[in-house]
Design brief:
- The structure holds two protein chains of two kinds.
- In chain A, the strands form two sheets. In chain A, strands 2, 4, 5, 9, 10 and 11 form a six-stranded mixed β-sheet that branches.
- By secondary structure, chain A is mostly beta strands.
- By secondary structure, chain B is mainly beta.
- In chain B, the strands form two sheets. In chain B, strands 2, 4, 5, 6, 9, 10 and 11 form a seven-stranded mixed β-sheet that branches. A four-stranded antiparallel β-sheet of chain B has the order 1-3-8-7, with no helix packed on it.
- Classes of the chains: A mainly beta, B mainly beta.
- Chains A and B meet through strand 4, strand 5, strand 9 and strand 10 of A and strand 4, strand 5, strand 9 and strand 10 of B.
């Protein structure tokens, strides 16, 4: 059975303090790994898709990386507006196009 | 451009009543997905359409839940004989030929 585990559950950073969020997964044939950002009361907002081990993608202060077992979302010099819940999801080759989400990491960046 | 829209945004219903939740996808998106999200959890897959065809309904919890997309655009998720355990945020997403799914704001369903 496909599984997605995100850690830590919650993370508090000072503005400018870089860190990484982890997403460990087990899936029988990965089609893609997705990162989303979710603000309170809003729907998940698409950030990145990674398809194969070794792939990296960047957007502003965020960089996502992928290995065969896990993905990291690196946040460089975060700002308070980066505070949100970050969700990781996998899409398996034998499960149609359904996304299997982890529980998310709640990030708080303080000034 | 306009994103995914859902209506109503909030729905309160009494146990045993039927409810219909509507999703209007991004224009031109051929695929449409329904998810359910509990507080503090990631979205949980319910069902998926490609154009008007329901391709996967493996996530629907039981036969009280059904969905349709008759013209390949707007979709309706119907829950019959609602129960308190059905209370949750119901989210719709759509995608084009790429794999990225774009989510709507959700419908908060409360069954009293």
């Amino acid at each position: 059975e496909d599984q997605v585990t995100q850690s830590p559950e919650a993370l508090r950073l000072q503005e400018g303090e870089s860190s990484s969020l982890n997403c460990s997964y087990t899936v029988s044939g990965l089609r893609g790994l997705f990162w989303y950002r979710q603000d309170p009361g809003k729907g998940p907002e698409f950030l990145f898709t990674l398809y194969s081990a070794g792939e990296e993608k960047e957007k502003e202060r965020l960089k996502a990386t992928l290995t065969k077992k896990e993905s990291f979302l690196h946040i460089t010099a975060p700002k308070p507006e980066d505070s949100a819940t970050y969700l990781c999801a996998v899409q398996a080759q034998n499960s149609g196009y359904a996304l299997n989400f982890g529980k998310g990491t709640s990030l708080l960046v303080t000034p | 451009g306009a994103g995914v829209s859902q209506s109503p945004r909030y729905k309160v219903t009494k146990r045993g009543q039927d409810v219909a939740l509507r999703c209007d996808p991004i224009s031109g998106h051929v695929s449409l997905y329904w998810y359910r999200q509990a507080l503090g959890q990631g979205p949980e897959f319910l069902t998926y359409f490609n154009y008007e065809a329901q391709q996967d309904k493996s996530g629907l919890p039981n036969d009280r839940f059904s969905a349709e997309r008759p013209e390949g655009s707007i979709s309706t998720l119907t829950i019959q004989r609602t129960e308190q355990r059905d209370s949750a945020m119901y989210r719709c997403a759509s995608s084009s030929t790429s794999y990225e799914q774009y989510f709507g704001p959700g419908t908060r369903l409360t069954v009293t």
